[in-house]
Amino acid sequence: MTDRVAQILISSFTKILIPGIKVTMPLTILSFAASLFLALFLALFQVANVPVLKQLSQIYVWIFRGTPLLVQLFIIFFGLPSIGIILDAFPSAVIAFGMNLAAYNAEVIRAAILAVPQGQTEAAYLIGLSYPQLMARVVIPQAFPIAFPSLFNNLISLVKDTSLASSITVVELFTTAQQIAARTYEPFALYCEAAVIYLIFCTLLTWIQGAVEKRLVWEHKEDKGRRRAMVG
Questions:
Q1: Please, what is the end-to-end C-alpha distance for the chain in angstroms?
Q2: May I ask the CATH class of domain 3-117+127-231?
Q3: Which of 39, 74, 180, 210 has the highest CB neighbour number within 10 Å of its CB?
């Protein structure tokens, strides 16, 4: 590595990192939160077996899992203005990422709900719980630890997918690296530096995931211990 390249990398690290903190991470968090909200309803509609809602949920999942995320971004940012709906780049990215990831998260949540023992559902109905009460008090609390690893993996993947937002003019981590590379004519070094910053973000999230999973396992063991004590 030449002195010039080393100097460019040193001076550009903070310039790339700051948009990563100020734009990439908020974009990731907002998109993931929106996806969870939508995914929960999509999953519940499918599990509840309400004919029309179940079919609409399945169609939604089919469309958003079966079409490229980049195309979805372009439809929302470049396509909607043709029918009079104009959105800024950042909200467009949040909507596209959120709607796309909701299709995947919905399947994760649905599978976790179905993994809860059927006997507990039947027992909840016997004591008079309604369907919303059953889901809120019995099913969702047990389904969450099952779904958590897959949901968090989707979050980590989303951090990397946000680089696609550069295609609709969102000035995030990768866009900044592109701009500096265009000025300095050192694309290889700068794109590698951007990759390292993405790796740092994903590694930190992986550590958080591991810590939370350990906590969930510990709470699960405590809960089983309490139940055994009650039975004894």
A1: 69
A2: mainly alpha
A3: 39
